[in-house]
Design brief:
This protein is an alpha+beta fold and 185 residues long. It contains two helices and eleven strands, in the order H-E-E-E-E-E-E-E-E-E-E-H-E. Helices cover 27% and strands 31% of the residues.
């Protein structure tokens, strides 16, 4: 019993229709997910938004110059406080211990900057008036470059810092002697 050519054509048409339907359903599903995520983020702001007055950062609060750099917390974690301003980061070099939970708390004194630590997942925007918070853990000692990745005006290309990851014990010794730790002695 031989099959008729129209049977093959009908089967092929049915298969194409089924695959086209599946493709359209996948596209509709992905578009719905994107719309939901966009609407949800727009209507549900971050659970915690912290602000800081960029005009008084250097005078009062947690971002005064004496409070910048790395600090060893009682629970063993480290908090890094930094400021981005045209055309530098303060501190220029951040010192942190290996295999420790690090919380970066940073803000901008003037325009939008970006804090990116190359080779890691640390990548956040520094917006004047807001405090950016990001956690990380560095498993390998060494130096990491920290360029500003948001165009911040003429001179942006020279806005670089670095992060030095050192031994935990050496960091703890430095923190006990200095309080705030940075690469500058």
């Amino acid at each position: 019993m031989s099959e008729h050519p129209t049977d093959h054509a009908a089967a092929a048409a049915r298969a194409e229709r089924n695959w086209a339907t599946i493709a359209i359903l996948i596209i509709v599903f992905l578009a719905a997910m994107a719309a939901f995520a966009g609407i949800h983020q727009a209507t549900m702001p971050q659970a915690r938004v912290e602000t800081a007055d960029p005009s008084t950062l250097h005078l009062t609060g947690e971002f005064v110059e004496s409070n910048l750099g790395s600090a060893l917390e009682p629970d063993g974690s480290v908090t890094v406080r930094a400021i981005g301003q045209q055309y530098s980061f303060t501190p220029q070099c951040i010192l942190i211990p290996v295999d420790t939970t690090i919380t970066f708390r940073a803000t901008s004194a003037d325009v939008i900057h970006g804090l990116l630590i190359q080779g890691t997942n640390v990548n956040t925007m520094l917006v004047p008036g807001y405090i950016s918070v990001q956690s990380a853990r560095f498993h390998t000692p060494g130096e990491y470059l920290m360029p500003c990745q948001e165009y911040c005006s003429f001179g942006h290309e020279g806005m670089w810092g670095k992060v030095k990851v050192i031994d935990k014990a050496a960091f703890a010794t430095m923190a006990s002697q200095q309080g705030r730790v940075s690469c500058v002695k």
